[in-house]
Structures are given as C-alpha cells and as structure tokens.
Automatic annotation (TrEMBL):
Pfam families xref list: HATPase_c_2
Domain Histidine kinase/HSP90-like ATPase: 5-115
Record key words, sorted: Kinase, Serine/threonine-protein kinase, Transferase
The protein, known as: Anti-sigma regulatory factor (Ser/Thr protein kinase)
Biological source species: Streptomyces aidingensis
Length: 126
C-alpha cells in the first residue's frame, strides 16, 4: 500500500496493520498490538527522515512469522542510538529493537526497506 508522507499517515498505517493482522489473518491481540506499535515507529521515521512524497507498507506472512516492511526512496540508513533521557525523540528504533523478533534495513536500487518480523505462535489463518 502506498501512503503519503504525512504525520496523519501513521494513524492510517496503524489501522491497516490492525485490519490485516487481526481481521484478515486472525492473529492474537497482543501480537497485533506489538505490530501496530512497531509500524507506527517505522512510519514515523519514514515521514520524518526520508524526505519523500510517499512511502509504502507491505505485509508478508510465512509459517511462524509475519514481516512488515516500510519502503521509502531514501538510501539513508536509520541508526539505533543509545537512549538519551534529555530528549523525547529518537527512541523509535529502541522500541523496534526490543519488541521485534528481528528487524533490519535492505537497501534497494531506489531507496530502502526497513522491516521487522514477529513470531506467530498459534492461532490465525494463512
């Protein structure tokens, strides 16, 4: 899904994530809520730092895992910074690093894909 690079797109991305995981894939509520929070962080980074008109959101599922990708046209890599208690920003990737089973960045010919994966335990449909 292609979304405009605006702050309000984070809310739309959260709703799309919740719908995909809870309604379409019937995944557990806690897994869904973790994914919604992680999507919010990756979308915030794309909106704030990519400097692009739009970004895209992609959901993938394979046995035992879900993967969510945020694609943007910037090739600048996000950095996991140490926590700084003097500021209210810059903690998004700390949250991603803590909650995601795995996460990373894949450079593409025209940008990058920042992604996370969460393990699926029981429930849901393919």
């Amino acid at each position: 899904m292609r979304l405009l690079s605006r702050p309000e797109s984070a809310g739309l991305a959260r709703r799309l994530t919740r719908h995909q995981l809870q309604v379409r894939w019937l995944l557990p509520a806690q897994l869904t809520e973790d994914a919604v929070l992680l999507v919010s962080e990756l979308v915030a980074n794309a909106v704030q730092h990519a400097g692009a008109h739009a970004f895209s959101l992609r959901f993938r599922r394979r046995r035992g895992w879900i993967r969510v990708e945020v694609h943007d046209p910037s090739r600048a890599l996000p950095c996991l910074l140490p926590p700084d208690h003097r500021t209210l920003t810059g903690r998004g990737l700390i949250v991603v690093n803590h909650l995601a089973g795995r996460w990373g960045v894949d450079l593409k010919p025209h940008g990058k894909s920042t992604w996370f994966e969460l393990r699926v335990t029981g429930g849901g449909r393919s």
